[in-house]
Specification:
- With 294 residues, this protein is mainly beta.
- The chain has a domain of 188 residues: Maltoporin, Chain A, CATH 2.40.170.
- The chain is 2% helix and 65% strand.
- The protein has one helix and 19 strands.
- Strands 3-4-5-6-7-8-9-10-11-12-15-16-19 form a 13-stranded antiparallel sheet, with no helix packed on it.
- Strand 11 and strand 12 form a beta hairpin.
- The two termini are 32 Å apart.
């Protein structure tokens, strides 16, 4: 993989290269599924990553199990040993206010989840999942230093619960709600003041819900809501951004077999908020489009 990025300043007639480099990478993956009984199955996986970076080769096993307790209730559990190498942008990017970090180490860690799927007669599905991800050398953006850059954080464990409910209210009328409770904690860091604190920008709880009308003929219209809780903007948790709630409208109309009209209004109430300090959102956004296939 190779990538380059440059910025041309027409006023000064200068061309500045942010990064221009390459990384060779690849992977092999195998998966085997065993059905012990009609109600119990097990899957085994193995992934081997190859990367030209130092410590860039990694073996990641995984295992998952599914048990149907009844026709309507299913338990699931999964484990994976994970790995992520830094990107070229992480390593070599360079701009007026940020630089890459060529000394970044790959992330590695362990992730598991356990959950239950409950069918609600013939009109809905409830899914609840507990998850835990423990990552060593987590790659995170740090804008709090004099020149913003990426850094490795010693050890971070994220635990939480995801709950989702999907139901059919009437013919062609559907509704959903999902909620994520998220708690990322720094367990090890070169800065002792960060230990046991929440990882910046990562700990916001989120709530999504919506109702839609959809027909087999390709007509779709939906009203959606997205709500995000507050979250810290530094790893010592001394500053934070408040949460926000936004509403959206989306539609899709099939005009013919090969022509589809799409439209949306994002942030209907023109809610003002910031995802990062000093970078406000775009406000209300209208979009329309035509998708044609030939």
């Amino acid at each position: 993989m190779s990538a380059s990025n440059s910025t041309f300043n027409y006023l000064r007639n200068t061309d500045t290269t942010s990064y221009d480099d390459s990384i060779s990478q690849g992977a092999l993956f195998a998966r085997y599924e065993i059905n012990f009984t009609p109600s119990f199955s097990l899957n085994l996986g193995l992934r081997q990553d190859f990367n030209s970076l130092a410590n860039g080769s990694f073996t990641s096993p995984s295992i998952g199990a599914k048990l149907a307790l009844t026709d309507s209730t299913t338990l699931q559990a999964n484990y994976i040993r994970n790995f992520r190498a830094p990107t070229l942008f992480n390593l070599y990017a360079r701009g007026s206010t940020f630089v890459g970090n060529p000394n970044l180490r790959p992330e590695n860690g362990d992730s598991y989840d356990i959950g239950i799927d409950q069918k609600l007669w013939n009109f809905g599905l409830l899914r609840v999942t507990y998850f835990s991800n423990t990552i060593s050398d987590l790659i995170a953006y740090n804008f709090a230093v004099p020149v913003a850059t990426y850094e490795n954080i010693g050890l971070v464990r994220t635990t939480g619960i995801e709950a989702a409910l999907n139901v059919q209210l009437a013919k062609n009328v559907y509704a959903f709600v999902n909620y994520t409770l998220n708690d990322p904690r720094i367990l090890k860091s070169v800065n002792s003041a960060e230990v046991d604190k929440e990882l910046r920008f990562a700990g916001a709880d989120s709530l999504n819900l919506g109702i839609s009308y959809e027909t087999p003929q390709g007509l779709y219209a939906g009203i959606l809501m997205h709500s995000l809780g507050s979250y810290p903007i530094n790893n010592t948790n001394t500053e934070s951004l408040s949460g926000y709630t936004t509403f959206y409208f989306k539609t899709r109309i099939t005009l013919s077999d090969n022509l589809v009209f799409t439209g949306s209004v994002d942030n209907i109430l023109n809610q003002r908020y910031q995802l990062f300090p000093g970078y406000p959102d775009a406000g209300r956004v209208f979009q329309v489009g035509l998708n044609a296939t030939f």
